[in-house]
Amino acid sequence: MTLRSIRASHLIILLAAMAFLSSCGSRRSTVYKESRGAKAAEAMANVKSKELYRFITDWSGVRYRLGGLDKSGIDCSGFALLLNKEIYGLKLPRRSKDQADVIKEKNVSQLKEGDLIFFSFGGNGIDHVGVYLNHGFFVHASTTRGVIVDDLSLPAYQRVLVKAGPVKD
């Protein structure tokens, strides 16, 4: 078994375990959370770029740390910066609000793998960034869960979504 397949297996097991362990409460809630975890695993399985897949697998679970840029802790803009540098050879500004200035904005329904997604949780402009994968899923450094694949259709994200698109040429 190769290191890549071992990491892929670990990621799928991790996502399935997270869905199972977080499924307390009613049956309806359990079915929803299990299917969300399965959909996140499916989104990872459908990543076209093997380099992107490896990068996400390698960083999955790394804890959030404001200003962080390494495996001891990373913030959302640092994660987007490193991902774009290592996978796409693109240079991004350090802060998410500055990163938002260098994209070509497009409708969320037209997003492609690698496009950036920006949010405003604080209400005073852009303060969070993620990277779109496929089927409505994106990867980001969550302040509470670290680097994770998440569902963009969740109301918590839909309410605060500001803009999205690829980095300008």
Could you explain how this protein is built, in words?
- The protein is 41% helix and 19% strand.
- By secondary structure, it is an alpha+beta fold.
- The strands form two sheets. Strands 6-5-4-3-7 form a five-stranded antiparallel β-sheet.
- The longest helix has 19 residues, at 3-21.
- Residues 19-32 have low confidence and may be disordered.
Shape: globular
Could you state the oligomeric state of the chains shown? single chain
In percent terms, what proportion of residues is strand? Answer: 15-25%
- Major beta sheet, strand line-up: 6-5-4-3-7
CATH hierarchy, class of one domain: Alpha Beta
CATH superfamily of one domain: endopeptidase domain like (from Nostoc punctiforme)
Which stretches of 5+ consecutive residues score pLDDT under 50? 19-32
Helix run count: 6
CATH third-level topology of one domain: endopeptidase fold (from Nostoc punctiforme)
Distance between the termini: 39 Å
What string, H for helix and E for strand, traces the elements in order?
A: HHHEEHHEEEEHE
Average pLDDT, rounded to a whole number, is: 87
Helix content: 40-55%
Q: Which structural class matches the secondary elements?
A: alpha+beta
- Count of extended strands: 7
CATH architecture of one domain: Alpha-Beta Complex
CA radius of gyration is 15 Å
Biggest β-sheet, characterized?
Answer: 5 strands, antiparallel
